[in-house]
Specification:
618 residues; Beta-galactosidase, Chain A, domain 5; five-stranded antiparallel β-sheet; 19 helices; globular; Chondroitin_lyas; Heparinase
């Protein structure tokens, strides 16, 4: 097993060459933060904080306290490896013991105890193996790898404690329990699968001394990981969006990279045909700088601290210049190459990757047109490599997707790479988020997405509630859109046409079509065509648009302005009402600022067609 550990590429503190060459800007940031927090007590995820998930639905405060512990340990571990100073070796040891003394590594939202017994506190005799437990196990394993020799001298017994806790809380449950849902024996898997499996494999190779047992654990992990791979479409799309790509597909890539390293290429993930397409998915969703096409619970703006080295490394493995350039687009001269927010394993990988350390910034590729049929997502701009004009993003799909919002038939418009017609994205998670009351949350309702509301209805739920693609033409060729009410054909250079009828509980003879067309770098047209039963004097339907920025009605147009970017919106002479949403959720405020505005266009006629025109203006 020692040979396998050496192959992981994670250097112990005794490897002075590796640690003396780490990036100075990253080290300076880590040292500054670590020295500041060392004067304070370790954060305390109390029982009362844990109980809040059941009592009032809050899960954030407990998670924040645990995360603070983990980040502090990460920084102390790196500084101890770099300096080998007793003070940092001790600080890291304190962090290890703090985590080992923690009653559970499972997050409150995932703990099985309350559902099984009604108890508020976790059952320490039956630990739940979730995302949080996997993360801490991998962190302790990497800390042991880096500082094991130092701890043998200064903290005898500490490494045995690490092994005992990881065995009890993670390795033994993984080996013995077939009822862990994310293994895929009883239900479809999601991003939990590669996230936990990668951490289990890392903990196993770094902590186990029994090679036969490691082989059994690896075989079990691969069998389960195959179930995740089987869910991935050939076009590489992730229905949860870019946010979850980093903690889903990227986690799979990290697990495959680890296995390739320890088997000297015997298990070669790069040989999987879908890996190349999977790797390109995020760059295809980039609107500009840190803004991305977001769907479901995804964020429109990157949080920061993404493990760019993972994408950079895999781009080099596959010799994919576009992926490499996209990752390099995140590099900033004189700025850290990674941060503690991504966890100790990812930070160490970035620190010891000389190619990533020496990478210089590059312009992202910004593809001109992308169509991903598996999720019915279109992204198009006028010119390859240039986000300066309008970018149109369209989402069809269904309402049974992972982390789903009711967003079938929605679209986004960005100008200069910044979205002004937007998808609200993920609010702060609470107990309601993944409950039967999920769609009581405003951000997840179709009424707060850029979709129509025939008869004022919300969209339905489930895999069978979705869009049907009516047409996707080759680049630059016309698509004939037949108006369902008039029978009049309309030719346009449309990006995609969707039948949205199945997204709503409509009558047998009712129908709704929507087509999208990027006419030029400064003009987008969205054509809605419908046939509904008469509504008895009330509007037959509404069109909803959600805008970020300053919103004003000027004659029969709406102007949305944010900094030096602006668009005008007109919809067949119909004037909308404006409804302001004053944001107080920190997740949403961090992306959008103080407010969003909904434009609500009434459509009076039961049958008809209206063209919404979005234009870039100065």
């Amino acid at each position: 097993m020692d040979r396998l550990r050496d192959r992981t590429g994670l250097p112990s503190s005794a490897d002075r060459r590796a640690w003396e060459e780490v990036d100075s800007a990253t080290l300076d940031r880590i040292r500054h933060e670590a020295e500041t927090e060392r004067t304070n007590p370790w954060s305390d995820p109390t029982a009362s904080l844990f109980a809040r998930f059941v009592r009032d639905g809050d899960r954030t405060e407990y998670e924040r306290a645990v995360d603070a512990r983990q980040q502090r340990l990460t920084r102390a571990t790196v500084l101890a490896a770099v300096t080998r100073a007793d003070a940092w070796v001790d600080e890291a040891a304190d962090g290890v013991v703090v985590l080992c003394e923690q009653s559970t590594w499972c997050l409150p939202a995932h703990d099985e105890t309350h559902g099984r017994t009604g108890d508020l506190l976790p059952d320490v005799s039956a630990p739940t193996l979730d995302l949080g437990a996997g993360e801490i196990a991998a962190q302790l394993a990497v800390a042991d790898r880096l500082l094991g020799e130092d701890w043998d001298l200064r903290w005898p017994g500490l490494r045995a404690r690490i092994r005992n806790e990881v065995e009890t809380r993670v390795l033994a449950p993984f080996e013995s329990r077939d009822d862990l849902w994310w293994l895929g024996y009883s239900r479809e898997v999601n991003n939990w699968n590669p996230w936990i499996l990668g951490n289990v494999l890392l903990a196993a190779v770094l902590l186990l001394d029994d090679a036969d047992r490691f082989a059994r654990l690896t075989a079990r992990a691969l069998e389960s990981l195959d179930r995740y791979v089987a869910t991935l479409p050939a076009d590489g799309a992730i229905d949860e969006g870019v946010t979850y790509w980093w903690n889903g597909a990227a986690r799979m890539l990290e697990a495959l990279d680890l296995l390739s390293r320890v088997t000297l290429g015997g298990l070669d993930g790069a040989a999987l045909p879908l890996v190349a397409e999977l790797l390109r998915f995020p760059l295809r969703m980039q609107l500009g700088d840190d803004w991305y096409v977001n769907v479901g619970d995804g964020r429109a703006r990157s949080r920061g601290g993404e493990p760019w080295q993972v994408a950079f490394h895999w781009g080099r493995v596959l010799d994919d210049r576009r992926v490499v350039d996209w990752a390099r687009g995140a590099r900033r001269p004189g700025h850290p190459v990674a941060s503690a927010t991504g966890g100790l394993p990812r930070l160490v990988r970035a620190l010891v990757d000389a190619s990533w350390r020496e990478a210089v910034p590059s312009a992202p590729p910004y593809p001109r047109r992308v169509w991903l049929p598996s999720v019915q997502v279109l992204v198009c701009r006028e010119r390859e490599g240039d986000p300066s004009g309008l970018t149109l993003a369209v989402k069809g799909g269904d309402n049974g997707e992972s982390h789903n919002h009711k967003d079938v038939g929605s679209f986004l418009v960005a100008v200069g790479g910044r979205p002004l017609l937007v998808d609200v994205g993920k609010p702060t998670y609470t107990a309601q988020t993944f409950s039967a009351g999920r769609y009581g949350i405003r951000a997840m309702q179709s009424g707060w997405h850029n979709v129509p509301a025939p008869h004022g209805l919300e969209q339905g739920e489930g895999r069978d509630v979705g869009a049907r693609v009516e047409g996707v033409p080759p680049d630059g060729e016309p698509l004939v859109t037949a108006g369902v009410a008039t029978g009049v054909d309309r030719s346009a250079r449309a990006g995609v046409r969707l039948d949205l009828t199945g997204a709503y509980p409509l009558g047998e003879d009712e129908r709704w079509l929507r087509s999208f067309d990027l006419v030029s770098e400064s003009r987008i047209e969205v054509v809605d065509t419908w046939r509904l039963e008469p509504a008895g004097g009330a509007p037959a339907a509404f069109l909803h648009l959600v805008a970020a920025g300053d919103v004003r009605i000027v004659d029969d147009r709406v102007v949305v302005r944010s900094d030096d970017r602006a668009i005008s919106i007109s919809s067949g002479g119909v004037v909308p009402t404006l409804e302001e949403w004053r944001l107080d959720d920190p997740e949403l405020v961090a992306v959008w600022g103080a407010r969003l505005t909904r434009l609500r266009y009434p459509l009076q006629e039961p049958s008809g067609s209206v063209t919404t025109v979005v234009e870039a203006v100065s």
